[in-house]
Design goal:
By secondary structure, this protein is mainly α. It has 22 helices and 2 strands. A hairpin with a 2-residue loop joins β1 and β2. α1 packs antiparallel against α2, α15 packs antiparallel against α16 and α21 crosses α22. The protein is elongated. The N terminus is likely disordered.
Length: about 575
């Protein structure tokens, strides 16, 4: 009978029991039957015996009843031991199934049957089986993200393993405890558990190397590189001795991490290159990805492009894990966006989404297979409920398929929306870039026009300066010629006023020395300021004598121009020479 997704098993309508509990119900009913069968059979036997005695038909029926009773009691005596042995084997098979699924990296978060197996072995004090049951109970708890409960399970596995002399379970428990502590940020405590696991492995060099590698990784996280290199060296030696390429590659990878943190990228690259011959084709993309990340940190684009090509070739050549493909495409997306290659980023994003869909599909398929295995196991253990369990599985399977279909449709819709959004963003970015480019071109045109205008103004100024210089030079030469004429005229002593009249008409009534200095500066630019700066203590007559020294004048001519006697001209020249010698 079915009601509300549950199945009723020979019970009144109001008692509705989940199908997953049918095995427990059947075992309970069987136990009650075994306990009540002797009384029931005795009652039946007595009633039958009395009836037979009353009817005087005792002999043949009594023999048959006695024979049947003996057989039934023999079966009852054997049933408890057979049932206990069968259940022990069934619980052990549950532990083995969960162990195999865990080693195959499958999802075990729904394997709650392991808890029943663990409770059973502890209850019956079967600690030899309780140790692995506790260990994989912790793995299931950890998969459920119940970390505190998982820690307790691992500690119990370590306790039972040491108690019965099972170092394997104890070593795994210590290692997994270290993983939990590392995940919670307690690296210092995790080191103790990893070391304990390494000691428990004894002669197992490969697994011991793995534990020592984990110890080294904790020291790297805590920036204790000296200790890290010590344990890495030990782990490398053990891995090479045991020919464990996987662990050896992991050790070289941790060496690379340490050297990267120490900014020794060349040594880190050497370590990563040593991992390439050690990894198989499925792990090769991850090794290439690590190399690409280092070259990205070094900003060596040529090497980075080479290893990006190698990564793409590796994931296309070998059917590697979807998680590996997702990591590679994620890196390629970030790098393409960093260099502004939006087209490549878009293509990698599409491939990344496809890989994500594959991962989701694998998880959905794994969930369906897990549910089917779970109910198949229950069906084998309880043949009486096979039909009901099959119907229940069909409903769950249809529900899962319906949910998977809805999830797939939802993902497709979300991907389509995301694709449109990305395209819209890319188009918006392109329009923005075009707009900026147009603005820059417009600004460049304006700046070019301004530059041409400045060039034109500069040329005009140069022409004006040249014209003014030529004009000034011509005026100066003209005035010099007039002065020469004036000097010739000044030699005529018969007209002493001729000099003043000529000076007045020559310089238009201005101070002739001011006009003379202006004309002189036009011909010898910077000379007057140089003299004032170099010889600041010169008198006016000494400064004028210095300027007139550029003309070949006689002593008398100097005296006439300066308006003094020849004797004073000699004194002026001597004073000027002394001051110049003092300032040298």
């Amino acid at each position: 009978m079915k009601k509300g997704g549950y199945t009723a098993f020979f019970l009144p309508q109001k008692f509705v029991i989940p199908a997953s509990n049918l095995l427990i119900i059947n075992a309970h009913i069987l136990k009650k039957f075994v306990n009540t069968f002797p009384l029931t059979f005795s009652s039946i036997f007595c009633n039958t015996f009395a009836a037979e005695k009353r009817n005087d038909m005792l002999s043949d029926r009594m023999k048959r009843i006695a024979k049947t009773m003996g057989l039934l009691f023999g079966m009852l005596l054997l049933m408890p031991s057979c049932d206990s042995k069968a259940k022990t084997e069934r619980m052990a098979s549950i532990v083995a199934e969960v162990r195999d699924r865990y080693k195959a990296n499958e999802d075990i978060s729904n394997d709650d049957r392991i808890f029943e197996a663990y409770d059973y072995f502890v209850k019956h004090k079967d600690y030899e089986n309780a140790a692995p049951a506790a260990l994989y109970s912790g793995c299931v708890r950890q998969a459920k993200k119940e970390y505190e409960t998982a820690m307790n399970c691992y500690k119990e596995a370590d306790y039972y393993g040491r108690q019965v002399g099972d170092p394997v379970s104890a070593a795994f428990a210590q290692y997994y405890i270290g993983d939990l502590l590392n995940a919670s940020g307690n690296e210092a405590e995790a080191v103790t558990n990893y070391k304990a696991a390494a000691e428990l492995w004894g002669d197992s060099l490969s697994r011991k190397a793995k534990c020592l590698n984990a110890v080294a990784m904790m020291y790297i996280v805590n920036d204790d590189y000296d200790s890290a290199f010590v344990y890495l060296k030990q782990a490398l030696h053990l891995a090479q001795t045991s020919n464990d390429n996987v662990t050896e590659a992991s050790v070289w990878n941790n060496y690379s991490v340490a050297y990267q943190l120490l900014d020794e990228y060349d040594t880190a690259l050497d370590c990563l290159r040593k991992t390439l011959p050690l990894v198989d084709e499925k792990r090769r993309p991850i090794a290439l990805l690590n190399l690409a990340k280092v070259y990205l940190a070094l900003d060596e684009r040529d090497s980075l492009e080479y290893y990006k090509t190698q990564m793409l070739s590796a994931i296309e050549r070998v059917e590697c894990k979807p998680e590996t493909q997702a990591a590679v495409y994620g890196f390629l997306i970030k790098d393409a966006l960093a260099v502004g290659d939006y087209e490549s980023a878009y293509q990698f994003e599409k491939q990344h989404e496809q890989v994500a869909l594959d991962i989701l599909g694998n998880q959905t398929q794994s969930s369906v297979l897990e549910i089917q295995k779970k109910y198949d196991f229950e069906a084998q253990a309880n043949q009486h409920n096979r039909q009901m369990l099959s119907r229940q599985r069909l409903i769950i399977l249809l529900t899962v398929i319906l949910i998977a279909a809805l999830v797939a449709v939802t993902i497709l819709i979300l991907n389509a929306l995301k694709k449109k959004r990305i395209e819209a963003e890319i188009n918006a970015n392109l329009l923005e870039l075009k707009k900026r480019n147009a603005q820059q071109q417009q600004e460049q045109t304006v700046m070019q026009a301004q530059y041409d205008e400045l060039q034109k103004q500069s040329a005009q100024q140069s022409e004006l300066q040249a014209e003014f210089g030529d004009k000034l030079k011509d005026e100066y030469l003209q005035k010099c010629n007039i002065i020469r004429c004036f000097e010739v005229l000044s030699r005529d002593r018969s007209n002493p006023m001729a000099f003043k009249d000529l000076e007045k008409s020559l310089f238009d009534g201005e101070d002739h020395w001011a006009s003379f200095e202006a004309a002189f500066e036009g011909v010898h630019p910077g000379f007057i300021s140089f003299v004032h700066k170099q010889y600041p203590d010169l008198t006016d007559l000494e400064f004028r004598y210095c300027l007139l020294s550029h003309f070949k004048l006689s002593r008398q001519e100097y005296a006439d121009v300066l308006g003094c006697s020849v004797y004073n001209v000699d004194k002026i020249r001597a004073s000027l020479n002394n001051k110049m010698k003092q300032n040298e």
